[in-house]
Each structure stands twice: as structure tokens, then as C-alpha cells.
Design brief:
Elements lengths: L7 H7 L6 E3 L13 H10 L10 E4 L5 E5 L2 E5 L3 E5 L4
């Protein structure tokens, strides 16, 4: 099946939840936090402007590798990482 938005690797992640690693406020994350000085310094200068979500938001990493802040911690964000945000995160 061809899809102009999702390549075969992305579809493999989306269609196989056993490959997902959940990070959510509802139970302990399936991935441990990491130390990332650059991200922590950015947060220290930008945390003065918090925002609140009026609904749930879900981020699914489909390619590449980076880090993502969640709550007060920083987590690895690799293909298959699923972040679930609510008004508390």
C-alpha cells in the first residue's frame, strides 16, 4: 500500500503498538529520562511562559532521534516513542 504521508517504516511503527514506548502522566514512563544540559538550559529560560492544553495531545515519533521535555524531565524521542499530553504536562 502506498501512502504519500507515511513511508513503510513509519507505517510499521504506527501499525505495531508493541514497538511503542509510552510517556504519559497516567502511569510510569516506559523509558527513563535522560540528562540533556542544552534542553535543561533552554527550559530554564523559557519556563516563565507556561502554557496549558485544553485537550489531550498525542505526539508519535516516526523517524530521527532527539529529546523531548515532558513534565520536569527530558526523555529520548526515537521512532516509536509516544507522548500523551494533557493539561498537567
Amino acid at each position: 500500500m502506498n501512502n504519500r504521508h507515511f513511508d513503510p517504516g513509519m507505517r510499521a511503527i504506527l501499525l505495531h503498538p508493541e514497538r511503542w514506548r509510552l510517556i504519559t502522566p497516567f502511569f510510569p514512563p516506559e523509558v527513563g529520562p535522560v540528562t540533556n544540559g542544552r534542553h535543561q538550559r533552554w527550559r530554564e529560560t523559557h519556563e516563565a511562559a507556561p502554557h496549558a492544553l485544553s485537550m489531550f495531545d498525542i505526539l508519535v515519533a516516526l523517524r530521527d532521534r532527539t529529546v523531548r521535555g515532558f513534565g520536569k524531565a527530558v526523555y529520548p524521542c526515537v521512532p516509536g516513542t509516544v507522548f500523551v499530553f494533557d493539561e498537567s504536562t
